[in-house]
UniProtKB/TrEMBL annotation:
PROSITE patterns: NAC. The lineage of its organism: Eukaryota, Viridiplantae, Streptophyta, Embryophyta, Tracheophyta. It comes from the Eukaryota. This is NAC domain-containing protein. The keyword Nucleus applies. InterPro entries: NAC-dom, NAC_dom_sf. One of its GO terms (molecular function) is DNA binding. Keywords: DNA-binding, Nucleus, Transcription, Transcription regulation. GO terms for biological process: regulation of DNA-templated transcription. It comes from Heracleum sosnowskyi. The keyword Nucleus applies.
Length: 212
């Protein structure tokens, strides 16, 4: 409770004071926010808003400060088991589209030398405007492993995914986007082995000094 004393509330959403940023690692986002959301369990804090659809909106029109990393929950609408082709998601006003880039990444937690546990999967999308003009907007999609989602007939689990949207700096220096997070291994998902995951220290927030 002492940690939460620095937080203020505005319309039910928690806000951090000036100088602090909500920047969980990929592992923390999956373990402490997405997985509890899927299992209808309490979250550490109400920092991640829930939206109906993310791909049909331009990122500048999404809630939050466009200069910062923004996180969202959205219900999963894609059947990952039926196809491996690249996903292209058009914005509703036809001003552009989100295109999947690169390989899926298995998000892992290192628990000992040469020992890690896979806890989720990340996909990355880039926004193209007009017909083929690549922008500096990136969207990262996080989902937990299918084996961690019991069938709806036996549980109250819901098909939630988490998203992180941010814009690269114009000089080409990324705000730590693709492949920057610790504990991320690039590999084909079908070649990974699924494991359980150990508990980690619960994250809260970070200051400006930690990341550029």
């Amino acid at each position: 409770m002492e940690k939460n004393s620095i937080l203020s509330s505005n319309g039910g959403e928690l806000q951090l004071p000036v100088g602090f940023r909500f920047r969980p690692t990929d592992e923390e986002l999956i373990l402490y926010y997405l997985k509890p959301k899927v299992h209808s369990l309490p979250l550490p804090a109400a920092f991640i808003p829930q939206i109906h659809e993310i791909f049909q909106s331009h990122p500048s029109n999404l809630p939050g400060d466009v200069k910062q990393r923004r996180y969202f929950f959205c219900r999963r609408k894609w059947d990952y088991s039926k196809t491996c082709r690249s996903r292209i998601n058009y914005i509703s006003d036809e001003s552009g589209y989100w295109k999947e880039v690169g390989k899926e990444k298995a998000i892992s937690v290192n628990v000992a030398p040469r020992t890690s546990f896979i806890v989720g999967i990340k996909k990355t999308f880039v926004l193209y405007e007009g017909k083929h003009t690549k922008t500096s907007w990136f969207l990262h999609e996080y989902r937990i492993l299918p084996s961690q989602i019991p069938t709806a007939s036996t549980t109250n689990c819901e098909n939630w995914v988490a998203y992180r949207v941010n814009q690269r700096k114009r000089n080409g220096r990324a705000q730590k986007n693709v492949g920057e997070d610790g504990g991320v291994m690039e590999m084909s998902v079908e070649n990974t082995i699924e494991f359980g995951c150990p508990p980690l220290a619960s994250p809260l927030c970070s200051s400006n000094e930690e990341e550029a």
